[in-house]
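Morning. Coffee machine broken again, so started the prediction first thing and wrote up yesterday's gels while waiting. Chain of 436 residues, entered below exactly as on the submission form.
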Amino acid sequence: MQTPDIERQEIHIIKQFQEEKMEIALKYLSENSPYYKKLFKKYDIDISQIKKLEDLSQIPVTNKEDLQKYNDDFICVPREKIVDYITTSGTLGDPVIFAVSDKDLERLAYNEAVSFICAGGHSGEIYQLMTTIDKRFMAGLAYFLGIRKLGAAIIRVGNGIPELQWDTIQRISPDAIICVPSFILKIIKYAEENGIDYKNSGIKKAICIGENLRNTDFSLNLLGLKIKEKWDIELYSTYASTEMATSFTECSCGQGGHHHPELIITEILDDAGNLVKDGEYGELTVTTLGVEAMPLLRFRTGDIAMFHTEPCRCGRTTKRISPIIGRRNQMIKYKGTTLYPAAIFDVLDNIDYIENYVVEVFTDDCGNDAVTIAIGLTKNIFPNKNVEKKLKDNFRAKLRVAPQISFSDTKKIMKIHAADINRKPIKFIDKRPKIN
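Came back before lunch.
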Protein backbone atom coordinates (compact mmCIF):
# COMPACT_ATOMS: atom_id res chain seq x y z
CA MET A 1 0.00 0.00 0.00
CA GLN A 2 0.97 3.63 -0.42
CA THR A 3 -0.39 7.08 0.38
CA PRO A 4 -3.73 7.54 -1.44
CA ASP A 5 -3.47 9.97 -4.37
CA ILE A 6 -6.31 12.15 -3.05
CA GLU A 7 -4.15 13.15 -0.05
CA ARG A 8 -1.74 14.99 -2.37
CA GLN A 9 -4.27 16.77 -4.57
CA GLU A 10 -5.09 20.47 -4.65
CA ILE A 11 -7.62 21.65 -2.08
CA HIS A 12 -10.43 22.31 -4.58
CA ILE A 13 -10.06 18.78 -5.97
CA ILE A 14 -10.25 17.29 -2.46
CA LYS A 15 -13.38 19.36 -1.80
CA GLN A 16 -15.05 18.22 -5.01
CA PHE A 17 -14.11 14.61 -4.21
CA GLN A 18 -15.70 14.90 -0.77
CA GLU A 19 -18.86 16.49 -2.14
CA GLU A 20 -19.34 13.52 -4.46
CA LYS A 21 -18.83 11.16 -1.51
CA MET A 22 -21.25 13.25 0.59
CA GLU A 23 -24.07 12.88 -1.95
CA ILE A 24 -23.63 9.10 -1.91
CA ALA A 25 -23.66 9.09 1.92
CA LEU A 26 -26.81 11.23 2.12
CA LYS A 27 -28.66 9.03 -0.35
CA TYR A 28 -27.66 5.92 1.62
CA LEU A 29 -28.92 7.45 4.88
CA SER A 30 -32.20 8.54 3.32
CA GLU A 31 -32.84 4.99 2.13
CA ASN A 32 -31.50 2.92 5.03
CA SER A 33 -31.32 4.86 8.31
CA PRO A 34 -34.52 4.96 10.40
CA TYR A 35 -33.07 7.78 12.47
CA TYR A 36 -32.03 10.04 9.60
CA LYS A 37 -35.20 9.30 7.60
CA LYS A 38 -37.18 10.74 10.52
CA LEU A 39 -34.75 13.65 10.85
CA PHE A 40 -35.02 14.61 7.17
CA LYS A 41 -38.82 14.39 7.34
CA LYS A 42 -39.10 16.34 10.61
CA TYR A 43 -37.03 19.25 9.31
CA ASP A 44 -38.32 19.01 5.72
CA ILE A 45 -34.80 18.48 4.36
CA ASP A 46 -34.44 17.79 0.66
CA ILE A 47 -31.09 16.02 0.44
CA SER A 48 -30.95 16.60 -3.32
CA GLN A 49 -30.31 20.25 -2.47
CA ILE A 50 -27.28 19.42 -0.32
CA LYS A 51 -24.57 19.76 -2.97
CA LYS A 52 -21.69 21.59 -1.30
CA LEU A 53 -19.94 20.85 1.98
CA GLU A 54 -21.20 24.22 3.21
CA ASP A 55 -24.80 23.01 2.67
CA LEU A 56 -24.39 20.50 5.50
CA SER A 57 -25.20 23.36 7.89
CA GLN A 58 -28.86 22.94 6.82
CA ILE A 59 -28.94 19.61 8.66
CA PRO A 60 -29.21 19.46 12.48
CA VAL A 61 -26.28 17.91 14.31
CA THR A 62 -26.33 14.50 15.98
CA ASN A 63 -24.91 14.08 19.49
CA LYS A 64 -24.09 11.29 21.86
CA GLU A 65 -27.44 11.58 23.65
CA ASP A 66 -29.17 10.82 20.33
CA LEU A 67 -27.01 7.70 19.93
CA GLN A 68 -27.86 6.56 23.45
CA LYS A 69 -31.59 7.26 23.20
CA TYR A 70 -32.23 5.97 19.66
CA ASN A 71 -29.40 3.49 19.27
CA ASP A 72 -31.24 0.89 17.18
CA ASP A 73 -32.58 3.54 14.81
CA PHE A 74 -29.05 4.31 13.63
CA ILE A 75 -28.52 0.77 12.32
CA CYS A 76 -28.83 0.63 8.52
CA VAL A 77 -28.41 -3.10 7.87
CA PRO A 78 -30.35 -6.24 8.79
CA ARG A 79 -29.17 -8.09 11.88
CA GLU A 80 -27.63 -10.92 9.84
CA LYS A 81 -25.16 -8.48 8.23
CA ILE A 82 -23.72 -7.43 11.60
CA VAL A 83 -20.48 -9.29 12.32
CA ASP A 84 -19.19 -7.43 15.38
CA TYR A 85 -20.51 -5.30 18.23
CA ILE A 86 -18.35 -2.52 19.65
CA THR A 87 -18.95 -0.01 22.44
CA THR A 88 -17.53 3.42 23.06
CA SER A 89 -15.34 3.91 26.13
CA GLY A 90 -18.02 5.86 28.00
CA THR A 91 -15.88 8.96 28.60
CA LEU A 92 -18.95 11.23 28.81
CA GLY A 93 -21.46 8.73 30.21
CA ASP A 94 -22.85 5.29 29.39
CA PRO A 95 -21.09 3.50 26.54
CA VAL A 96 -22.84 3.46 23.15
CA ILE A 97 -23.22 0.25 21.17
CA PHE A 98 -21.96 0.24 17.58
CA ALA A 99 -22.88 -2.47 15.11
CA VAL A 100 -20.25 -3.28 12.49
CA SER A 101 -20.61 -5.10 9.18
CA ASP A 102 -17.97 -7.03 7.27
CA LYS A 103 -17.63 -4.07 4.90
CA ASP A 104 -17.06 -1.81 7.91
CA LEU A 105 -14.22 -4.03 9.11
CA GLU A 106 -12.63 -3.74 5.66
CA ARG A 107 -12.96 0.06 5.89
CA LEU A 108 -11.47 -0.02 9.38
CA ALA A 109 -8.51 -2.03 8.14
CA TYR A 110 -7.95 0.42 5.28
CA ASN A 111 -8.17 3.38 7.68
CA GLU A 112 -5.51 2.01 9.98
CA ALA A 113 -3.27 0.89 7.13
CA VAL A 114 -3.16 4.39 5.59
CA SER A 115 -2.72 5.83 9.09
CA PHE A 116 0.29 3.62 9.74
CA ILE A 117 1.68 4.66 6.36
CA CYS A 118 1.50 8.25 7.65
CA ALA A 119 3.73 7.14 10.51
CA GLY A 120 6.26 5.58 8.16
CA GLY A 121 4.75 2.11 8.32
CA HIS A 122 5.50 -0.54 5.70
CA SER A 123 5.29 -4.25 5.10
CA GLY A 124 7.71 -6.45 6.98
CA GLU A 125 7.62 -4.46 10.21
CA ILE A 126 6.63 -5.98 13.55
CA TYR A 127 4.32 -4.04 15.88
CA GLN A 128 3.77 -4.88 19.54
CA LEU A 129 0.21 -4.02 20.60
CA MET A 130 0.09 -2.77 24.19
CA THR A 131 -3.65 -2.06 24.19
CA THR A 132 -6.52 -4.47 24.67
CA ILE A 133 -8.14 -6.17 21.69
CA ASP A 134 -11.05 -7.47 23.79
CA LYS A 135 -13.66 -5.71 25.99
CA ARG A 136 -15.59 -4.54 22.90
CA PHE A 137 -12.71 -2.15 22.09
CA MET A 138 -12.56 -0.85 18.52
CA ALA A 139 -8.99 0.48 18.56
CA GLY A 140 -7.25 -2.80 19.34
CA LEU A 141 -9.22 -4.60 16.64
CA ALA A 142 -8.55 -1.76 14.18
CA TYR A 143 -4.81 -1.92 14.77
CA PHE A 144 -4.79 -5.67 14.23
CA LEU A 145 -6.73 -5.40 10.97
CA GLY A 146 -4.77 -2.41 9.71
CA ILE A 147 -1.36 -3.92 10.36
CA ARG A 148 -2.39 -7.09 8.52
CA LYS A 149 -3.58 -5.03 5.55
CA LEU A 150 -0.29 -3.12 5.61
CA GLY A 151 1.56 -6.41 5.27
CA ALA A 152 3.23 -6.10 8.66
CA ALA A 153 3.13 -8.40 11.70
CA ILE A 154 1.53 -7.79 15.09
CA ILE A 155 2.14 -9.20 18.56
CA ARG A 156 -1.05 -8.98 20.67
CA VAL A 157 0.36 -8.60 24.17
CA GLY A 158 -2.41 -6.36 25.52
CA ASN A 159 -2.19 -3.58 28.08
CA GLY A 160 -0.19 -3.43 31.30
CA ILE A 161 2.28 -6.01 32.71
CA PRO A 162 5.70 -4.43 31.96
CA GLU A 163 7.43 -7.75 32.66
CA LEU A 164 5.48 -9.47 29.85
CA GLN A 165 6.05 -6.51 27.51
CA TRP A 166 9.83 -6.75 27.93
CA ASP A 167 9.84 -10.54 27.72
CA THR A 168 8.05 -10.23 24.37
CA ILE A 169 10.36 -7.49 23.10
CA GLN A 170 13.42 -9.53 23.99
CA ARG A 171 12.04 -12.71 22.40
CA ILE A 172 10.64 -11.30 19.14
CA SER A 173 12.39 -7.94 18.60
CA PRO A 174 9.50 -5.81 17.30
CA ASP A 175 10.21 -2.58 15.44
CA ALA A 176 7.44 -0.51 17.04
CA ILE A 177 5.04 -0.39 19.96
CA ILE A 178 1.42 0.82 20.09
CA CYS A 179 0.41 2.18 23.47
CA VAL A 180 -0.73 5.04 25.69
CA PRO A 181 2.35 7.31 25.98
CA SER A 182 2.36 7.47 29.79
CA PHE A 183 2.75 3.67 29.76
CA ILE A 184 6.08 4.10 27.96
CA LEU A 185 7.42 5.77 31.09
CA LYS A 186 6.27 2.77 33.14
CA ILE A 187 8.04 0.24 30.93
CA ILE A 188 11.16 2.44 30.96
CA LYS A 189 11.04 2.49 34.76
CA TYR A 190 10.66 -1.30 34.86
CA ALA A 191 13.59 -1.70 32.47
CA GLU A 192 15.82 0.56 34.58
CA GLU A 193 14.90 -1.29 37.78
CA ASN A 194 15.57 -4.68 36.22
CA GLY A 195 18.74 -4.01 34.25
CA ILE A 196 17.15 -4.16 30.79
CA ASP A 197 19.07 -2.31 28.08
CA TYR A 198 15.94 -0.73 26.61
CA LYS A 199 17.86 1.79 24.49
CA ASN A 200 19.28 -1.06 22.42
CA SER A 201 16.09 -3.12 22.31
CA GLY A 202 15.46 -2.57 18.59
CA ILE A 203 12.31 -0.49 19.14
CA LYS A 204 12.43 2.40 16.69
CA LYS A 205 9.07 4.12 17.19
CA ALA A 206 5.89 4.30 19.23
CA ILE A 207 2.37 4.86 17.88
CA CYS A 208 0.75 6.71 20.77
CA ILE A 209 -2.96 6.80 21.55
CA GLY A 210 -5.26 8.30 24.15
CA GLU A 211 -3.04 11.11 25.45
CA ASN A 212 -1.52 14.22 23.92
CA LEU A 213 2.19 14.22 23.14
CA ARG A 214 2.29 17.77 21.84
CA ASN A 215 1.40 21.32 22.76
CA THR A 216 -0.87 23.36 20.52
CA ASP A 217 2.20 24.63 18.59
CA PHE A 218 3.16 20.97 17.95
CA SER A 219 6.23 21.11 20.17
CA LEU A 220 6.50 18.09 22.46
CA ASN A 221 4.66 18.63 25.74
CA LEU A 222 6.09 17.66 29.11
CA LEU A 223 5.09 14.01 28.66
CA GLY A 224 6.61 13.84 25.17
CA LEU A 225 9.82 15.53 26.31
CA LYS A 226 10.14 13.20 29.28
CA ILE A 227 9.86 10.13 27.05
CA LYS A 228 12.39 11.48 24.52
CA GLU A 229 14.86 12.36 27.26
CA LYS A 230 14.78 8.77 28.46
CA TRP A 231 14.37 6.92 25.17
CA ASP A 232 15.13 8.53 21.82
CA ILE A 233 12.58 6.72 19.69
CA GLU A 234 10.22 8.27 17.14
CA LEU A 235 6.88 9.30 18.67
CA TYR A 236 3.71 9.52 16.57
CA SER A 237 0.47 10.92 17.97
CA THR A 238 -2.85 9.57 16.80
CA TYR A 239 -6.43 10.66 17.42
CA ALA A 240 -9.56 8.62 16.74
CA SER A 241 -12.95 7.67 18.16
CA THR A 242 -15.33 4.74 17.86
CA GLU A 243 -18.07 6.96 16.46
CA MET A 244 -16.08 8.15 13.46
CA ALA A 245 -14.18 4.88 12.90
CA THR A 246 -11.34 6.95 11.47
CA SER A 247 -7.86 7.92 12.67
CA PHE A 248 -5.85 11.11 12.34
CA THR A 249 -2.18 10.12 12.55
CA GLU A 250 0.97 12.24 12.40
CA CYS A 251 3.59 11.89 9.73
CA SER A 252 7.29 12.28 10.51
CA CYS A 253 6.91 16.09 10.42
CA GLY A 254 4.93 15.94 13.67
CA GLN A 255 2.60 18.77 12.67
CA GLY A 256 -0.80 17.22 13.42
CA GLY A 257 -2.80 14.15 12.47
CA HIS A 258 -3.60 13.94 8.76
CA HIS A 259 -7.19 13.90 7.51
CA HIS A 260 -8.21 11.07 5.16
CA PRO A 261 -10.83 12.71 2.89
CA GLU A 262 -12.11 9.41 1.50
CA LEU A 263 -13.22 8.36 5.00
CA ILE A 264 -14.66 11.37 6.78
CA ILE A 265 -15.99 14.92 6.38
CA THR A 266 -15.05 17.27 9.20
CA GLU A 267 -16.42 20.54 10.57
CA ILE A 268 -15.34 22.66 13.54
CA LEU A 269 -18.35 24.22 15.27
CA ASP A 270 -18.85 26.73 18.06
CA ASP A 271 -21.32 26.24 20.92
CA ALA A 272 -24.15 27.63 18.78
CA GLY A 273 -23.44 25.12 16.01
CA ASN A 274 -21.86 27.59 13.61
CA LEU A 275 -18.63 26.99 11.70
CA VAL A 276 -15.71 28.72 13.40
CA LYS A 277 -13.24 30.82 11.44
CA ASP A 278 -10.04 29.23 10.15
CA GLY A 279 -7.48 28.98 12.93
CA GLU A 280 -10.07 28.93 15.73
CA TYR A 281 -10.87 26.14 18.16
CA GLY A 282 -14.27 24.49 18.30
CA GLU A 283 -15.97 21.14 18.56
CA LEU A 284 -14.98 18.55 15.97
CA THR A 285 -18.08 17.42 14.10
CA VAL A 286 -17.88 14.54 11.64
CA THR A 287 -19.78 12.85 8.83
CA THR A 288 -18.59 9.32 8.15
CA LEU A 289 -18.06 8.12 4.57
CA GLY A 290 -18.30 4.50 3.49
CA VAL A 291 -19.68 3.18 6.79
CA GLU A 292 -22.38 0.58 6.15
CA ALA A 293 -23.94 -0.49 9.47
CA MET A 294 -24.05 2.74 11.54
CA PRO A 295 -23.01 5.80 9.51
CA LEU A 296 -23.24 9.18 11.22
CA LEU A 297 -24.15 12.58 9.82
CA ARG A 298 -22.79 15.76 11.46
CA PHE A 299 -21.95 13.99 14.73
CA ARG A 300 -20.58 16.30 17.44
CA THR A 301 -17.68 14.39 18.98
CA GLY A 302 -17.32 16.57 22.10
CA ASP A 303 -13.61 17.03 21.34
CA ILE A 304 -12.21 20.57 21.10
CA ALA A 305 -9.64 21.08 18.34
CA MET A 306 -8.75 23.14 15.28
CA PHE A 307 -7.47 22.32 11.79
CA HIS A 308 -4.32 23.48 10.03
CA THR A 309 -4.87 23.81 6.30
CA GLU A 310 -1.47 24.72 4.85
CA PRO A 311 0.24 21.84 2.97
CA CYS A 312 2.50 19.63 5.07
CA ARG A 313 6.21 19.26 4.35
CA CYS A 314 5.58 15.55 3.75
CA GLY A 315 3.74 16.43 0.52
CA ARG A 316 0.20 15.79 1.74
CA THR A 317 -2.24 18.64 1.18
CA THR A 318 -4.95 17.35 3.50
CA LYS A 319 -5.99 19.14 6.69
CA ARG A 320 -4.15 18.34 9.90
CA ILE A 321 -5.86 18.24 13.27
CA SER A 322 -4.36 19.97 16.31
CA PRO A 323 -3.85 18.22 19.64
CA ILE A 324 -7.22 17.79 21.35
CA ILE A 325 -7.29 20.43 24.09
CA GLY A 326 -10.23 18.88 25.93
CA ARG A 327 -13.79 17.66 25.80
CA ARG A 328 -16.60 20.20 25.67
CA ASN A 329 -18.47 18.66 28.62
CA GLN A 330 -15.30 18.53 30.73
CA MET A 331 -14.35 22.21 30.56
CA ILE A 332 -13.58 23.62 34.01
CA LYS A 333 -13.84 27.27 35.04
CA TYR A 334 -11.61 27.45 38.08
CA LYS A 335 -10.76 30.74 39.78
CA GLY A 336 -11.34 32.63 36.55
CA THR A 337 -9.21 30.27 34.44
CA THR A 338 -10.56 27.87 31.80
CA LEU A 339 -9.02 24.41 32.15
CA TYR A 340 -9.44 20.98 30.66
CA PRO A 341 -8.43 17.76 32.44
CA ALA A 342 -5.68 17.11 29.88
CA ALA A 343 -3.81 20.23 31.03
CA ILE A 344 -3.94 19.02 34.64
CA PHE A 345 -2.79 15.54 33.61
CA ASP A 346 0.12 17.07 31.70
CA VAL A 347 1.44 18.67 34.89
CA LEU A 348 0.98 15.57 37.05
CA ASP A 349 2.38 13.07 34.53
CA ASN A 350 5.68 14.87 34.52
CA ILE A 351 6.50 14.93 38.21
CA ASP A 352 8.81 12.05 39.03
CA TYR A 353 7.65 11.47 42.59
CA ILE A 354 3.96 11.07 41.68
CA GLU A 355 3.00 7.41 41.33
CA ASN A 356 -0.68 7.95 40.43
CA TYR A 357 -3.56 10.38 40.94
CA VAL A 358 -7.27 11.09 40.51
CA VAL A 359 -8.66 14.52 39.61
CA GLU A 360 -12.16 15.37 40.85
CA VAL A 361 -14.25 18.38 39.91
CA PHE A 362 -17.46 19.39 41.73
CA THR A 363 -19.64 22.43 42.36
CA ASP A 364 -18.89 24.36 45.55
CA ASP A 365 -21.39 26.13 47.83
CA CYS A 366 -21.22 29.26 45.67
CA GLY A 367 -22.04 27.36 42.46
CA ASN A 368 -18.47 27.53 41.11
CA ASP A 369 -16.27 24.73 39.82
CA ALA A 370 -13.87 23.33 42.41
CA VAL A 371 -10.97 20.94 41.77
CA THR A 372 -9.31 18.50 44.13
CA ILE A 373 -6.56 16.02 43.32
CA ALA A 374 -5.82 12.85 45.29
CA ILE A 375 -2.15 12.01 44.76
CA GLY A 376 -0.23 8.83 45.46
CA LEU A 377 3.50 9.44 45.96
CA THR A 378 6.38 7.10 45.22
CA LYS A 379 7.70 5.07 48.14
CA ASN A 380 10.68 7.31 48.86
CA ILE A 381 8.63 10.53 49.18
CA PHE A 382 6.76 11.29 52.40
CA PRO A 383 3.69 13.56 52.09
CA ASN A 384 4.12 16.85 53.92
CA LYS A 385 3.49 20.59 53.60
CA ASN A 386 6.68 21.15 51.61
CA VAL A 387 5.68 18.57 49.00
CA GLU A 388 2.20 20.10 48.80
CA LYS A 389 3.63 23.60 48.36
CA LYS A 390 6.01 22.40 45.67
CA LEU A 391 3.15 20.77 43.79
CA LYS A 392 0.97 23.88 44.00
CA ASP A 393 3.82 26.09 42.83
CA ASN A 394 4.22 23.77 39.85
CA PHE A 395 0.54 24.15 38.99
CA ARG A 396 0.66 27.94 39.31
CA ALA A 397 3.69 28.08 37.02
CA LYS A 398 2.03 25.94 34.33
CA LEU A 399 -1.70 26.74 34.67
CA ARG A 400 -1.78 29.98 36.74
CA VAL A 401 -4.01 28.33 39.38
CA ALA A 402 -3.45 25.61 41.97
CA PRO A 403 -6.14 23.04 42.86
CA GLN A 404 -6.67 21.54 46.29
CA ILE A 405 -4.33 18.62 46.91
CA SER A 406 -4.63 15.61 49.19
CA PHE A 407 -2.38 12.58 49.53
CA SER A 408 -3.71 9.06 49.28
CA ASP A 409 -2.52 5.46 49.25
CA THR A 410 -1.37 4.43 45.78
CA LYS A 411 -3.28 1.13 45.99
CA LYS A 412 -6.51 2.96 46.76
CA ILE A 413 -6.05 5.18 43.71
CA MET A 414 -5.18 2.16 41.57
CA LYS A 415 -8.56 0.62 42.46
CA ILE A 416 -10.30 3.78 41.24
CA HIS A 417 -8.30 3.66 38.00
CA ALA A 418 -9.39 0.09 37.33
CA ALA A 419 -13.00 0.42 38.49
CA ASP A 420 -15.67 -1.81 36.93
CA ILE A 421 -15.09 -2.76 33.28
CA ASN A 422 -13.60 0.48 32.01
CA ARG A 423 -10.95 0.07 29.31
CA LYS A 424 -9.26 3.34 30.16
CA PRO A 425 -7.90 4.24 33.62
CA ILE A 426 -10.32 6.53 35.44
CA LYS A 427 -8.21 9.61 36.21
CA PHE A 428 -10.99 12.22 36.08
CA ILE A 429 -14.26 12.18 38.03
CA ASP A 430 -16.84 14.88 37.30
CA LYS A 431 -19.37 15.33 40.12
CA ARG A 432 -20.96 18.50 38.77
CA PRO A 433 -24.71 18.40 38.08
CA LYS A 434 -25.48 17.22 34.56
CA ILE A 435 -26.80 19.95 32.24
CA ASN A 436 -29.25 18.79 29.58
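Residues 11-32 form the longest helix (22 residues). Going to sketch it on the whiteboard this afternoon.
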